[in-house]
Each structure stands twice: as structure tokens, then as C-alpha cells.
Specification:
Main location: cytoplasm
Oligomer: single chain
CATH architecture: 3-Layer(aba) Sandwich
Subcellular location: Cytoplasm
Protein name: Guanylate kinase
Organism: Pseudorhodoplanes sinuspersici
Bound molecules: adenosine-5'-triphosphate, ligand LQESDW3C
Order of helices and strands: EHEEEHEEHEHEHHEHH
Helix content: 40-55%
Distance between the termini: 20 Å
Shape: globular
Low-confidence stretches: none
Number of strands: 9
Pfam family, one: Guanylate_kin
Length: 218
């Protein structure tokens, strides 16, 4: 057997959560640009589209009725109400990717993470991103200039309820320096991909290695 061969494994569900504005979207988009074999789970939402967003790329934007039809038809892996809007993860693309050994990145909140923990724990790796300070969180939301003052105030208020959920996650990152945070996030994915338990056919690989070794030793 060729020693460079890729060992087959199931895909990983890499979840990144944070209070609004801490930087999870920036970090996950960077990861998608730099890493192969990973795709973003595109959520459905009833939230209004921001000017910088494209339907079908950042989210699939739905009416409340369309969202309820998907949810009630069992088409969502998880769903939650966040900041007064509904968000959910379409089931089919995720299940297909994982079965084909492709990793999937999720930008979802703590409620969705809890649901995926309950249903798919063995596939989930979760990361909680914290802002360096409360003032910086507010500044980031303001500098992003995508939301009204009212929406920013609501998101900052909700941050106090979201942040205590950091303890439920596998990893925690304080996103002070973007480059350092990115290196850490990428490191988490790299290490998780190498975990022994994920390598479904590692035993076959080792058996071949041992049998080849026998031919080399008297
Ligand atoms: N380490 C950082 N230093 C300075 N600015 C940052 C850093 N990380 C992200 N930002 C900026 O902060 C703003 C908010 O980031 P981003 O949109 O990624 O947050 P988010 O956590 O995904 O928010 P939401 O949940 O609302 O989507 C963006 O303008 C982004 O460029
Ligand atoms: N439980 C889920 N949460 C989701 C999903 N998609 C996004 N989100 C979270 O909602 C908030 C707000 O996002 P924004 O784009 O409006 O700023 C943020 O915490 C996201 O992580 C989902 O499918 N399920």
C-alpha cells in the first residue's frame, strides 16, 4: 500500500458560534478560502437580506411560511429563533457531504449547536469565539455598518445571554488579532481531521503496513 494514501473518514461538522460581531463570519469565510475539502452549510433564514449579502450564497432568504414548511417537513437538521428571526440548517446537503467524507462549516448559534450535539455528537467539533472586550464588540458592529442602531443595541443585549454558553463548546477563541485567531481555527480543523477515531480504515492501513514490514525483515 502507498504510504501517501489518504485514509478514508467521515466528514467533520465544524461549528463556529459567537455573539454577533465577534468575528465568526470573517473567520469562517477565511477558512473556506484557504482550506480544501470543506464547504459552508448555507442556512435558511427569515431575516431581511443585508446589502452585502447574496441570496443562495450567504443565506437562502425565505418568507416565514416557506421556513415553516421546510421545518415541519423535516427538512432542517436544526433551527432556532435568533435576534427575532428564524434560522435553520438544511438537512440534505450536510448529510451528503459528511457521507462523502467532506467537512462542513456551520455559522450557527448555541441553540442550534445544542441540537446538533444531541443528534450528531460524534461528527461535531464546536468552537466559541469571544470578542476581546465589550467595547470592541460594539465598535465592530458599528464599523460593519450593516445594521441599524436599534438592531445593534438588540444584538449587544443578546450577547449577554449568548456568551455564558461558551462552556458548552469544545474550543474557545478570543478573537483579538484576526490573523492569530485564524491560525488557531485552522489548527483546530487540522488536528480534528487527524484524530484516530475519525479514520475508519486505519486498521486496514496498519495491517498492510505490518505485512509489508514482514517482507523487509528476515
Ligand atoms: N480580529 C478582528 N479585529 C478587528 N475587526 C474584526 C476582527 N474580526 C472581525 N472583525 C470585523 O468585525 C466585524 C464583525 O465581524 P463578523 O461579521 O465576522 O461578525 P459575526 O460574529 O459573524 O457577526 P454576526 O453574528 O452578526 O454575523 C466585521 O466588520 C469584521 O471585519
Ligand atoms: N441555530 C442557527 N443559528 C444560525 C443559523 N444561521 C445563522 N445563525 C446564527 O444567527 C445569528 C445571527 O446571524 P446574522 O447573520 O443575522 O448576523 C448568528 O449567531 C448566527 O450564527 C442556523 O442555521 N441555525
Amino acid at each position: 500500500m502507498n504510504a501517501n494514501i489518504e485514509i478514508a473518514r467521515r466528514g467533520i461538522m465544524l461549528i463556529v458560534s459567537s455573539p454577533s460581531g465577534a468575528g465568526k463570519t470573517t473567520l469562517t469565510r477565511n477558512l473556506l478560502d484557504k482550506e480544501e475539502n470543506v464547504s459552508l452549510s448555507i442556512s435558511v433564514t427569515t431575516r431581511a437580506r443585508r446589502t452585502s449579502e447574496i441570496d443562495g450564497i450567504h443565506y437562502k432568504f425565505l418568507s416565514r411560511r416557506q421556513f415553516e414548511l421546510m421545518r415541519d417537513g423535516g427538512e432542517l437538521l436544526e433551527w432556532a429563533e435568533v435576534h427575532g428571526n428564524f434560522y435553520g440548517t438544511p438537512r440534505e446537503p450536510v448529510e451528503t457531504a459528511l457521507a462523502e467524507g467532506r467537512d462542513v462549516l456551520f455559522d450557527i448559534d448555541w441553540q442550534g449547536t445544542q441540537q446538533l450535539y444531541n443528534s450528531m455528537r460524534q461528527d461535531v467539533v464546536s468552537v466559541f469565539v469571544l470578542p476581546p472586550t465589550a467595547e470592541e464588540l460594539k465598535l465592530r458592529l458599528e464599523r460593519r455598518a450593516e445594521d441599524t442602531q436599534e438592531i445593534i443595541a438588540r444584538r449587544l443585549k443578546n450577547a449577554a445571554e449568548e456568551i455564558p454558553h461558551w462552556e458548552e463548546y469544545d474550543y474557545v477563541l478570543v478573537n483579538r488579532d484576526l490573523e492569530k485567531s485564524f491560525i488557531r481555527l485552522r489548527g483546530i480543523l487540522t488536528a480534528e481531521r487527524l484524530k484516530r477515531v475519525r479514520k475508519e480504515d486505519i486498521q486496514d492501513f496498519v495491517d498492510h503496513l505490518l505485512s509489508d514490514l514482514k517482507t523487509l525483515t528476515p
